[in-house]
């Protein structure tokens, strides 16, 4: 129960701290407006922020202490802080680099970019490189099974590691680092293909409905309404159950791609139709129709170029959704099928390692690395999309 | 008042029609399966007589339309058919013991209650936290606090549920043993014990949905801050907190209620993954297990329940936004 007593005492101390902070500030600065007009809530906020900062620094110190029990307890927090700082500095350098190198347009873009957006672009680039050159970067094959299983990550021989396997091996002796890198190729690649397919189908049908109107529009829109009334993850699980009667292994993975693309294309359809309806009433569409242009020309040469901006932002968000859905399905054991390395499956397979966190945090880091890899990419894409939307909406406040 | 009842009745009717069509879609999807269920249950080496007997037992010898309406009629009365995994096929085995276990409704009912409990606990935590944080972020907009919450919420929206779940397990269950990492609930527990067991999955779900609700609350309030009546309130010399809570928040309620209902609908999807991570005996876990062993009647029934809950919550969102908006309440 002492945990709660401590918490209450700490809160009380911070409440008092907020008041003292404001009081001292007024005295020392001789009633500068900054302190004079400060409400108590703001003062408390400053103290809370300072307390969190102090706690983080203290925890980071503890994570590097020589006492193994203490260091183990703060191992993950320490690593998280290190990771955060490294990424922040890297994003800052990347933005600086972008401001100096490149064409005039790209330099201008980088100058107005917040740090979160440049972080996002950097991460996306790294993932893209990893995914394309996975075979060259990974030290071992994704299906290669080695004699020693359960090698501890970290490469420290005293702790049961092996420098040849920096992130260790899993229960049946596959190199985790290689599987993580191949995971970029499989998971991200499959999600990307799925999103493209969803956009092709949903986009074309949406523009078609907007151009033709009438019965086509009604029919397609009502069908989409019905499909959207079933939660996406639930519906895809149902359809995958059905598909698993026909396919196994790689075939099931392909059918999953088609199923998720179909389900997600309904969301794309909605947006494409909404954007398209505003475009088809334009004069230049009328002119093209009078010229006698065909339907395909209208959709792909007249409507599509004018709808790229909203569709591009939607593409980023849709990719995140698809990526998370595929990871969730793989985590549940019905998504990307083995032997392809994939992050969702890796999290599930390695999840029992998490119970070793007290004695050997290095072991427990393996499933978190795979899950973190998923989170990092979606966070990055979301940051970029957020910035794009903010920029195009012109919101100031 | 009559017109508003009419609108609600219209929406309800529309929801029912949607549910009906959805049930057709689910049934059709399941019936696309090649071969038939009887062969699936008995495997390759089944004798034709045994297959025939099971086909009769399950009513598979009838046409799809007849079977659909039988299923629908049963579902409306709460009878969702028999589970394949625990089927005991009286005529095949020659006895009829243990028939209680094999009904789908019997399996789903207790788990449905558990899932509702989990969703309820989540909502109790998430909604007040989200609205408070949203109001604070709108109050201190463009400050360090606002930016920090923006980054944190964006990150927690975009993380997969299982990542958040494992981080919480790591800190609250493994390194500091505050909460149990496995949420094994049963009927004998007291209410408090049950809440304690449910807290970790509920916290995970809270992290997922709070972020979205909070961002919408902030956006809805900030949208209103440019309107003249807010300017007026400011010029009267009211404190910023009072301007937002008393003047802006009531007008921002419609989109906020809407997004709360939509997020509760989203919980239904999120619940599946989280229940699997924590071993919580809810309907989501049953669904995933049935998908893996291809227990069609259970999958079909769970899917229908999820879809019904989803439609119902979306409908609620719709109706609530009508009720909270005077302009929609008194249409010209």
TrEMBL record, chain A:
One of its GO terms (cellular component) is plasma membrane. GO terms for biological process: transmembrane transport. CDD domains: TM_PBP2. It comes from the Bacteria. The keyword Nucleotide-binding does not apply. Residues 184-389 form the ABC transmembrane type-1 domain. It is found in: Cell membrane. Keywords: Cell membrane, Membrane, Transmembrane, Transmembrane helix, Transport. InterPro entries: BP-dependent_transpt_permease (IPR050366), MetI-like (IPR000515), MetI-like_sf (IPR035906). Pfam families: BPD_transp_1. The chain crosses the membrane at residues 6-25, 37-62, 74-94, 115-138, 188-212, 246-263, 315-336, 356-385. It is a multi-pass membrane protein. Belongs to the binding-protein-dependent transport system permease family. This is ABC transporter permease subunit. It comes from Shimia litoralis. The lineage of its organism: Bacteria, Pseudomonadati, Pseudomonadota, Alphaproteobacteria, Rhodobacterales.
TrEMBL record, chain B:
It is a multi-pass membrane protein. It is found in: Cell membrane. GO terms for molecular function: dipeptide transmembrane transporter activity. Gene3D superfamilies: MetI-like. Residues 112-317 form the ABC transmembrane type-1 domain. The chain crosses the membrane at residues 12-33, 116-139, 151-174, 194-214, 252-278, 298-323. PROSITE patterns: ABC_TM1 (PS50928). It comes from the Bacteria. One of its GO terms (cellular component) is plasma membrane. Keywords: Cell membrane, Membrane, Transmembrane, Transmembrane helix, Transport. Its main location: membrane. Belongs to the binding-protein-dependent transport system permease family. PANTHER family: DIPEPTIDE TRANSPORT SYSTEM PERMEASE PROTEIN DPPB-RELATED (PTHR43163). This is ABC transporter permease.
């Amino acid at each position: 129960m002492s945990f709660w007593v401590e918490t209450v005492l700490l809160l009380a101390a911070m409440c008092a701290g907020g008041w003292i902070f404001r009081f001292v500030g007024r005295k020392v600065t001789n009633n500068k407006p900054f302190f004079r007009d400060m409400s108590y809530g703001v003062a408390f906020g400053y103290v809370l922020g300072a307390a969190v900062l102090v706690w983080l620094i203290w925890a980071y110190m503890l994570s590097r202490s020589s006492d193994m029990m203490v260091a183990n307890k703060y191992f993950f927090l320490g690593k998280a802080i290190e990771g955060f700082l490294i990424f922040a500095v890297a994003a800052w350098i990347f933005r600086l680099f972008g401001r100096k190198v490149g064409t005039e347009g790209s330099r201008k873009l980088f100058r107005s970019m917040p740090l979160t957006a440049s972080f996002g672009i950097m991460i996306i680039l790294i993932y893209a490189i990893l995914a394309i050159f996975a075979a060259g970067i990974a030290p071992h094959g994704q299906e290669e099974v080695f004699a020693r299983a359960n090698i501890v990550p970290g490469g420290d021989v005293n702790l049961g590691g092996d420098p040849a396997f920096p992130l260790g091996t899993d229960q049946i002796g596959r190199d985790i680092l290689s599987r993580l890198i191949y995971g970029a190729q499989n998971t991200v690649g499959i999600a990307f293909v799925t999103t493209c397919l969803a956009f092709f189908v949903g986009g074309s049908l949406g523009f078609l409905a907007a151009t033709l109107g009438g019965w086509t529009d009604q029919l397609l829109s009502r069908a989409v309404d019905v499909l959207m009334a079933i939660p996406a993850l639930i519906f895809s699980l149902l359809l995958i159950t059905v598909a698993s009667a026909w396919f196994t292994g790689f075939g099931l993975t392909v059918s999953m791609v088609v199923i998720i693309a179909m389900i997600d294309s309904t969301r794309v359809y909605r947006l494409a139709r909404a954007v398209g309806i505003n475009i088809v009433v334009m004069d230049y569409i009328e002119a093209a129709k009078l010229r006698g242009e065909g339907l395909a020309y209208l959709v792909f040469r007249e409507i599509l170029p004018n709808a790229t901006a909203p569709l591009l932002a939607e593409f980023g968000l849709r990719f995140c959704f698809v990526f998370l859905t595929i990871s969730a399905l793989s985590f549940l054991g019905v998504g990307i099928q083995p032997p392809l390395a994939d992050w969702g499956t890796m999290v599930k397979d390695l999840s029992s390692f998490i119970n070793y966190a007290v004695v050997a945090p290095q072991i427990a880091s393996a499933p978190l690395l795979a899950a973190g890899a998923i989170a990092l990419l979606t966070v990055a894409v979301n940051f970029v999309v957020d910035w794009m939307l903010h920029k195009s909406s012109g919101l100031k406040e | 008042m009559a017109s508003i009842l009419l609108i609600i009745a219209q929406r309800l009717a529309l929801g029912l029609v949607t549910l009906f069509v959805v049930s057709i879609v689910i049934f059709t999807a399941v019936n696309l399966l090649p071969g038939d269920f009887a062969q699936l249950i008995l495997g390759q080496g089944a004798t034709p007589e045994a297959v025939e007997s099971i086909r009769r037992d399950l009513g598979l010898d009838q046409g799809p339309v007849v079977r659909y309406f039988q299923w629908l009629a049963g579902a409306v009365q709460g009878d969702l058919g028999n589970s394949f995994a625990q089927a005991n096929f009286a005529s095949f085995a020659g006895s009829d013991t243990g028939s209680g276990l094999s009904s789908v409704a019997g399996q789903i009912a207790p788990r449905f209650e558990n899932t509702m409990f989990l969703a309820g606990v989540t909502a109790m935590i998430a909604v007040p936290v989200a609205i408070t944080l949203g109001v604070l972020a709108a109050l201190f907009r463009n400050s360090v606090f606002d930016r920090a919450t923006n980054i944190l919420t964006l990150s927690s929206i975009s993380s997969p549920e299982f990542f958040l779940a494992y981080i919480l397990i790591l800190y609250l269950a493994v390194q500091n043993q505050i909460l149990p990492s496995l949420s094994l609930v049963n009927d004998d527990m007291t209410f408090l014990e049950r809440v304690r067991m449910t807290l970790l999955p509920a916290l995970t779900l809270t992290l997922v949905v709070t972020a979205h609700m909070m961002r919408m609350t902030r956006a809805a309030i900030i949208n209103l801050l440019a309107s003249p009546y807010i300017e007026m309130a400011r010029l009267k010399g009211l404190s910023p907190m009072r301007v937002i809570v008393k003047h802006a928040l009531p007008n921002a309620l419609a989109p906020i209620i809407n997004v709360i209902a939509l997020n509760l609908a989203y919980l239904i999807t999120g619940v599946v993954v989280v229940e699997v991570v924590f071993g919580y005996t809810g309907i989501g876990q049953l669904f995933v297990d049935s998908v893996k062993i291809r227990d069609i009647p259970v999958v079909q029934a769970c899917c229908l329940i999820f879809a019904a809950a989803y439609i119902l919550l979306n409908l609620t969102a719709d109706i609530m936004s009508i009720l909270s908006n005077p302009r929609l309440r008194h249409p010209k």
